Amino acid sequence: MSMISVTVDGAARSIEADQKPTHIFADNKEIVVCKVNGVLKDLWTDLVEGDSIEGVSISSPDGLAVLRHSTAHVMAQAVQQVFAQTRLGIGPPITDGFYYDFDPQNPFNPDDLEKIESAMRKIVKEGQRFKRRVTTESDALKELAHEPYKCELIGIKGGGTDETNVEVGGTELTIYDNLGRDGQPVWSDLCRGPHLPSTKHIPAFKLMRSAAAYWRGSEKNPMLQRIYGTAWPSQDELNAYLELLAEAEKRDHRRLGQELDLFSFPEEIGSGLAVFHPKGGIVRRAMEDYSRKRHEEEDYEFVYSPHLTKAALFQKSGHLDWYSEGMYPPMIMDEELHADGTIKRAGQQYYMKPMNCPFHNLIFQSRQRSYRELPLRLFEFGTVYRYEKSGVLHGITRARGFTQDDAHIYCTKEQMPGELDSLLTFVLNLLRDYGLEDFYLELSTRNPEKSVGEDADWAEATEALRKAAVAQNLELVLDEGGAAFYGPKISVQAKDAIGRTWQMSTIQVDFQLPQRFELEFSAADGSRQRPVMIHRALFGSIERFFGVLTEHYSGAFPPWLAPVQVMAIPVADAFTDYLHGVVKQMKSAGIRAELDSSDDRMQKKVRNAQMQKIPFMVIAGEEDMNAGAVSFRYRNGEQKNGIPIAEAISEIKQIVADRLQV
Fold first, then answer.
1. Number of H helices, E strands in the chain
2. How many other C-beta atoms lie within 10 A of the C-beta of residue 273?
3. Does position 437 have pLDDT exceeding 70, yes or no?
């Protein structure tokens, strides 16, 4: 047998010419896929002289994606076994799992998912091999004539979305056959791959739920049935993930928002548009007030702008070129008609604003600016509106109307590095004040196909952001091509109490909008120069951050944010008047205190306060009243008795001032 020379995980090696990666990595069961010359490939891929092969473990990001995509194929095979007339859509891997879209005769129900999962387990046990087969467009159309959605994908080969590219991306059109024990195909699917060597490499999976979904995400297309599932390298990891989901469900801000009477989404208003109730308003105001205070300390100046504007403003900023799909449709206003109904004066298009930055540019431009005014830091709690598709709306963390804590800093190029450094420090420290501690940073770089501006400006801005990020001594992750059209950005990624990652603050350097708006300032030498513009949203939006904090604290906000900080509970009715006086003193001291004077028994009142996650309970009976004191019960169940009223007030105020959790 002839030999060829290859490189395996960086080491030179001579192998037999007919060997495949599956033979090379036969002793390492963790390797389920490989990279050949940097391209992800099946372990059954043919090798040639000079190839560089790198093993990819099932636990790596690439390995997990292949595991989940292969499990999606097994699910599709099982669906067509159980429901033979079902037609196939697409089945990509997603974060922590996968889905597959189907066109069944009847919508799936929970019992159907159990049947499908049972059929999947049999397929996994059979150890069916995934075998790649290159085909032509004409042959594929003949073979898949009974699958109309697959045939539609064949026509867009190489030009689809991330989801459709798992089927037909790349230059070759390929089909994967699942081979039975006799080596003959038992099921096939149009797919780019790669896949696991066989179904026996799927260690642990579970089907989660079904939902309706438009074909290829468009309301103009047929409604299909989507089944979501998850797959993991071990049963223990699957169990841990399911436990995480159960905990996340308990913390879901939508459920807690209703239980704690914080906010709601009235049907009369519309999807993605929330109203905040009095208790939610207290939390929100506390968040905003502290943010205002800290911004004032950092020399930000507060501005305000309207909710809508003529289209010309967003044409000038470029948003209508780059962001129109995310904007609400325009309103035609100021139109004048003749008596016969013909147009006398054409109306103008007005848009609800999706961004605040163009308005802040107009404020900068409203008069001549001097270098002595820079850096100029403009800040606004600006409500914006974005037409998110209904399928991606998620409570107040993904809404259609929300208020950004939006700032734009105008500075010189020389000031930019120092401004970015102090800005990132300010952002991280402020997030820490709200109780988030675990961060990493993500640097998003230019996408040449979706950006404007000079290469040199982009390079300078990207390097300045990189240096500011490195100075924070946090993990820095590169997001290649992820920047907005006008400049690179740093995103602060924060982990919550159960380890989930949320994108928080974003900081973007922008050389483009100052040019589009012809912004200038008088330099020290008398010349007119262009400022650098830095975009910064600290929370992302007040609503989203509210939702994140609700889930982070599981509704048990620290006292400084809690809607009700103290609930006063009398041991018996005879002590209600005494506690009424205590509550009055607390309110005078700025503490949000209430008295439970209901007819419930004391134990029920305590339970109610616990259910409402109130930080402190002050309880009084005869001994407390005679001593001018209260019993002090913390949310965690600890209790101190006989605390003088003044001391109780002082302790609560100090805990609130220090923003401590109890």
1. 20, 35
2. 16
3. yes
* Sequence-separated (6 or more) residues with CB below 8 Å from residue 345: 334, 335, 336
Alpha-carbon distance of 402 to 74, in angstroms, equals 41
Which residue from 386, 382, 380 is spatially nearest to 408, judged by alpha carbons?
Answer: 380
Is 537 a residue whose pLDDT tops 80?
Answer: yes
HSE of 434 in the Cβ direction (CA atoms, 13 Å)?
30
| pLDDT interval class at 165 (50, 70, 90) | low
233: preceding bond cis by omega (within 30 degrees): no
The pLDDT assigned to 158 comes to 47
Measure the CA angle with vertex 424, ends 303 and 361; round to 5°: 30
Residue 311's CB is within 10 A of a number of other CB atoms, namely 17
Largest CA distance in the chain: 100
Please, what is the angle between helix 645-657 and helix 576-588, to 10°? 40
Beta carbons of 218 and 243 less than 8 angstroms apart? no
Cis peptide before 375 (omega within 30 of 0): yes
Instruction: At 157, give phi and psi (nearest 5°).
Output: -50, 125
Number of Cβ within 10 Å of residue 600's Cβ equals: 13
Q: Quick: pLDDT tens for 232-288.
A: 999 999 999 999 999 999 999 999 999 999 999 999 998 999 999 999 999 999 999
23-64 pLDDT, tens digit per residue, is 999 999 999 999 999 999 999 999 999 999 999 999 999 999
The CA distance from 439 to 437, in Å, is 6
Tens digit of each residue's pLDDT (9 = 90 or more) over 109-139: 999 999 999 999 999 999 999 999 999 999 9
For the chain, how are helix, strand and coil distributed in percent, rounded to 5? 35, 30, 35
Q: Virtual CA dihedral for 649, 650, 654, 656, nearest 10 degrees?
A: 10
Task: Report whether 316 contacts 517 (CB < 8 A).
Answer: yes
Q: Is 325 exposed, middle or buried (0-12, 13-18, 19+ CB in 10 A)?
A: exposed
Helical residues (DSSP H) of 298-402, grouped into ranges: 311-317, 319-322, 357-365
Query: CA of 514: how far to CAs of 405, 509, 525, 531, in Å?
Result: 21, 11, 20, 7
Half-sphere exposure of 526 (CA within 13 A, CB side): 0
Residue 243, classified by CB atoms within 10 Å of its CB into exposed (0-12), middle (13-18) or buried (19+), is: exposed
Rg of the chain's alpha carbons, rounded to an integer?
30
pTM value is 0.85
Q: Which amino acid is at 472?
A: Q
CA distances from 407 to 382, 404, 508 (A): 10, 9, 11
CA 46, CA 43: separation in Å to the nearest integer?
9
